[in-house]
């Protein structure tokens, strides 16, 4: 049975003034349950990731600031949220959820985190609504526990995974692949193992052609024994910030293609949802649900 990480802390109200579309974290599993794609048995609730594990990725001084609520005003502005204990708790739970997904993916081929994809978090700071980098934490966990030796991170969010790229810049065991808007946030890009910058207005055909060009070659080149897939739906033509012109069907085809290739090569994959900022939350939820449905159909 495919497992999905979900916990009520994902949907706890955050401090007044946040701009992140939090409702989707409640609506995604609700929609999948309503349509009969999953049952309650598919869902599991993670606990907080232990500090010891977080410190395999993040600096001790930074984690201390998150726990003790001593981020400066400038650091909070870069993150985009005012600090709060509930926010730190939420990020620790999300990180553990992605780690737990790794275990389930090793058994079932795939597992998905309703939240996660916090790829703008660096080892020593947070940015862009990201405090802790869940995929980096989970990747380092796999390496530390010798559960994987070569990891591929497939980041298809419209924003470059700058924090992830920075964390693994000198680690040849983790290959970071990012297809993202060239003129989108972050405006200072880090160097991934492979960056594929996309011009504004890139449409479905061009987007999928680039993915078909690069991903099969990377699987042959990298030979990963584990993969992470950040399946952001901010590539949609309806997205307020994405600047691309990918249709919902094109986004759905992207997900099926990624899962098809990984399954064909027997590479287990842990998936996180990443961004989505269409004005209508139903558009966001539908697109994210298509990712879950693709995994459920494929595996």
Automatic annotation (TrEMBL):
Query: What are its GO biological-process terms?
Result: epigenetic regulation of gene expression
Q: Which residues form a coiled coil?
A: none
The Histone deacetylase domain is annotated at 18-289
Q: Which UniProt keywords apply?
A: Hydrolase
- Keyword Hydrolase attached: yes
Q: Which is an annotated GO molecular function term of this record?
A: hydrolase activity
InterPro entries, from UniProt?
Answer: HDAC_classIV, HDACs, His_deacetylse_dom, His_deacetylse_dom_sf, Ureohydrolase_dom_sf
Top-level division of the source organism's lineage: Bacteria
The record ties this protein, via SUPFAM superfamilies, to:
Arginase/deacetylase
- A Pfam family recorded for this sequence: Hist_deacetyl
State if Ion transport is listed as a keyword. Answer: no
What does the similarity note say?
Belongs to the histone deacetylase family.
Q: What is the official name of this protein in its record?
A: Histone deacetylase
Q: Which organism is it from?
A: Filimonas zeae
